[in-house]
Design goal:
Length: 236
């Protein structure tokens, strides 16, 4: 079975890109689709009704949705295998720009909107750096100069990243993406792991404390004058 893991910020067109992929490859693969979100998502009903493929939604609730994706991946893969799927498509909630859910197997796709501005590439480096392919949407809504700067920043920052521009509503250039899916290797569950290290999440905020200020928390904490890699550990 092949695996396509789709990440990216909200409202960049992730689901629309997935729909174009399904339309292009529905006759080639038996597909399964899983959507991870927090408390509400409509994509499952849309995919089922429009394409008649197996689809389901998993809600993270109080968990970080990107961490929840990692936790349920094994179950999701086994679910798709039980369905005899050839291609499993997993769409993340896209709420965290620090979590990078991409794996050492399958194809990792990050969907980015050019409307987010040229500086968004620098702000989202942690989300982008482990993806295999970047699909740039809404390119028809920005000027040519901004498009060129955006793409240049992407390619300068991520040398191995494949970049595909598309108007996802019309499906322009989606065939290039589908070819990459065709060329991707089948996954082997026993060897699957994250490409990068997940962010530190050991603190009392993660277990529900509403207090503010580092002195009121335990675990990994940080002060205002500390740099990005300078953490303290308080308590057990």
């Amino acid at each position: 079975m092949k695996l396509l893991l789709v990440g990216g910020p909200p409202s960049t067109g992730k689901t629309t890109v997935i729909q174009r992929i399904i339309e292009k490859r529905q006759g080639k693969y038996k597909m399964a689709y899983l959507k991870m979100d927090v408390v509400y998502a409509h994509e499952e009903e849309l995919i089922k009704e429009k394409y008649n493929i197996h689809a389901r939604t998993v809600y993270a609730g109080d968990l970080c949705p990107d961490h929840a994706v990692v936790m349920i991946l094994t179950d999701a893969i086994r679910w798709a295998e039980d369905l005899k799927a050839d291609l499993l498509i997993i769409e993340s909630a896209g709420l965290c720009l620090r979590c990078s859910p991409y794996l050492n197997q399958g194809l990792g796709l990050v969907v980015l909107s050019m409307l987010s501005g040229i500086h968004s590439v620098d702000k989202m480096k942690q989300l982008i750096c482990f993806a295999d392919v970047a699909v740039l949407t809404m390119n028809d809504l920005v000027c040519q100069a901004e498009r060129e700067v955006y793409i240049k920043k992407l390619k300068n920052s991520f040398n191995d990243l494949k970049v595909i521009e598309t108007n996802a509503l019309q499906g322009i250039a989606i065939e290039y993406l589908c070819n990459l899916i065709d060329e991707s290797e089948e996954i082997h569950l026993g060897n699957l792991e994250l490409k990068g290290n997940p962010p530190l999440g050991t603190c009392t905020i993660c277990i529900g404390s509403k207090k503010i200020g580092w002195k009121n928390h335990y675990g990994v904490v940080r002060q205002i004058d500390s740099n990005a890699a300078d953490y303290m550990y308080r308590g057990d």
